[in-house]
Amino acid sequence: MRSDIQDNNKIKVKLFAILRERVGESEITITAPTGITVNHLNSEILKKYPQLKSFNNKFVTSVNCKVTTGDTIISSKDEIALLPPVSGG
Amino acid sequence: MIRITNNRLSLQEIMFELEDNSAGALSMFIGNVRNRGRSGNVSEIYYEAYSEMAEQKMREIENEAQTKWGIKKLVAIHRIGNIKVGESSIIIGVSSEHRHEAFEACKYIINNVKARVPIWKKEISKESQKWADGILLE
Fold first, then answer.
1. B90–A65: do the CB atoms touch at under 8 Å?
2. Which class is A2-83 in CATH?
3. pTM value > 0.90
4. Domains identified in chain B, total number
5. Would you write out chain A's pLDDT as a tens digit for each of its 89 residues?
6. How many alpha carbons lie under 13 Å from residue B22 in its C-beta half-sphere?
7. Is there a contact between B80 and A89 (Cβ–Cβ < 8 Å)?
8. SS3 A32
9. Which domain holds residue B121?
10. Strands (E), A1-89
11. Looking at residue B81, which CATH number applies to its domain?
């Protein structure tokens, strides 16, 4: 039961482009309390991966493929991604 | 047809997809990798996508173009991975009854793909590799 609770609080975050390169992983896992907001998650990510601090405010966070605001509450079931400025085409 | 692919883009396949006997116009935009970038000479570009979200956003843009101009058929394919100078990274094709709708829809789609779809490019030369400056999604 205890391990289920811990698993529920593990949030997987996809990284792309320069963010992926700086961390060296395309997906990271952040352990976070239930009911965490996007802003809180991002500050936890920057604490764990200080190499991303220079990119603060230079990426947006998507939840289930939609760009979202900082006060959005997320759960471990959501698909989270950090997206630096796009340059396709 | 909306697609993100690792394969070389085939004009023949795209022309086939756009065939429609009720369409009198077909407009196409082809984006190629050029040999000069912001940081100097370029030998190839590496493209990366958040494919699931990118295809969703491209469908959203397709629906907007459909509503605005009532186009007949649309093809938008973005290639990802390493693409050499002279090869195509993206092809947008639109067929419509008359030319005005096809031109306008094609322009709208490529402009919005560049601004709203999670795809990134890194310019690669013999001397350096640099992620392109881009647009922060909203």
1. no
2. alpha beta
3. yes
4. 1
5. 444 444 458 999 999 999 999 999 999 999 998 899 999 999 999 999 999 999 988 999 999 999 999 999 998 899 999 999 999 99
6. 4
7. no
8. coil
9. 2-131
10. 10-15, 27-31, 60-63, 66-67, 80-83
11. 3.90.1170.40
